[in-house]
């Protein structure tokens, strides 16, 4: 393991999003706050949540996690597709990175961006609604695990895509619908039975539900189940990423 | 070049390499080796397989069969060592638009596991006349400066073998000259240089040994002198004291140019006698004032071998 090489790539990926912080950090924070203001105001008292939890408070962890995972995905996918389209990927392909070093650096930076944006949303949201924190370890653990999973998924998308619009399609037709239908804005227990069952097949649901448990100590599914689902998703995506890197799929076999 | 390697080890070994893209055979059993310290030219027409071979050496693409080694390290099974020993200046001008020149070089050093490389980065910046641009964003550099940064990036980990893939394409004459001065210095310092270029006069001027690749196969691999000696023909330039109005019938086919009192004729290196041709001209009452034999350039040899106009 060449830690210097891995850490340099990780640092470069962080520098990349920090240099355009207005677009990569501030903009998603503002979007999340707009959701909070609009939906929090319109749906307060109209949507079933957990016992003793206001809709505004219920919404915050969902929006937070949605922002975290969408940005983690965006970090790896946009970095890779940009490098591919602009040709600068060659600077990453020529050095002697192992597949794992490459993976760790990109996913690590995705986690950092996810956490940075999540922290921004949280710090501003607490001015709007009082949010309890039941278990900080679960909150941070799920934020990291969710960013990891989405960073890895972003890497798959970034390796697979050859054009920007393919990444946009990945986001519009997969990430956004699955996030919106994962219980960000509601408890899946409020859904009709069919949609309730279908929601349990949505991997994003477990990210949101487990994360929300850390705030309220209650969730739609047992937190351990969410945790195991996340671990399984992380394992599958890690294997998929490493296989793609090892095979050189769309990176080394032009 | 700080590190020394077993001198009997070739700098680059290409052994029976095949690569195809569907039906297109890009490399068809290519084999050759390059000695340490050589200035080696790899020439060929567009689509001949030059870039495929260089990309395969750099690990940017995977070959179907055969093996490629950099100073004894296989580019696939021992890729860490192989890539550490190789610097590649890519053909396209590419850059990461987020960073300054210095940041770009610092990151590139780190990718090769080098932590504190400021001294060498300073030297590279100075050698390539980039010191005053070190804190400028890559986007703001001219094409020539970006090209120089690419060279610095290729050298930042001090590789003993440097591959330059058409580094002077689209570069102005002054920059080309200064680039070659720098590359010559690297060669004198012991680096092995592999060059592909469209400018055959560059290869003729710089390279010790030249390989010509065509349709994925090596069709010539010789020293520059031997390759030039392969030229089948030369040209005979004759200047007469008066205007030349008529050329003897038996010489008509040889005329390349007839311009006032000058005529340029093709001659075959082995089959023709210059004296006999001159006698035939004199027989036509042409009074010869000056004679010169123009030997084939690498361009001529290249055209004869590949039927193409440029490398």
Fold topology:
The complex is a heterodimer of chains A (254) and B (311).
Chain A: H1 3-19, H2 21-43, H3 55-86, H4 90-93, H5 99-125, H6 136-160, H7 164-180, H8 193-199, H9 203-216, H10 223-247
Helix pairs in contact in A: 1-5, 2-3, 2-5, 3-5, 3-6, 3-7, 3-9, 5-6, 5-10, 6-9, 6-10, 9-10
Chain B: E1 12-21, E2 24-34, E3 39-43, H1 50-57, E4 65-70, E5 73-74, H2 79-84, E6 86-89, H3 101-111, H4 118-127, H5 143-155, E7 161-165, H6 173-188, E8 192-196, H7 200-206, E9 209-214, E10 217-223, H8 224-229, E11 233-240, E12 255-259, E13 262-268, H9 274-283, E14 288-295, H10 298-306
Strand order of the largest sheet of chain B: 6-7-8-3-9-10
Continuous helix count of chain B: 10
Shape of chain B: elongated
User: Could you name the ranges of chain B where pLDDT drops below 50 across 5 or more consecutive residues?
Assistant: none
What is the CA–CA distance across the termini of chain A? 27 Å
Helix/strand/pairing class of chain A, anyone? Answer: mainly alpha
Radius of gyration of chain B: 24 Å
- The overall pLDDT of chain A, averaged over residues, is 90
N→C terminal distance of chain B? 30 Å
Helix content range of the residues of chain A, please?
Answer: over 70%
Assess the beta-strand content of chain B as a share of residues.
Answer: 25-35%
**Large-scale geometry of chain A:** globular
User: What amount of the residues of chain A lies in strands?
Assistant: under 5%
Biggest pleated sheet of chain A: none
What is the count of β-strands of chain B? Answer: 14
Task: Spell the H/E element sequence of chain B.
Answer: EEEHEEHEHHHEHEHEEHEEEHEH
Query: Strand tally of chain A, please?
Result: 0
Give the overall average pLDDT of chain B: 86
Order of helices and strands of chain A: HHHHHHHHHH
For the largest beta-sheet of chain B, the strand count, sense and barrel status come to: 6 strands, mixed
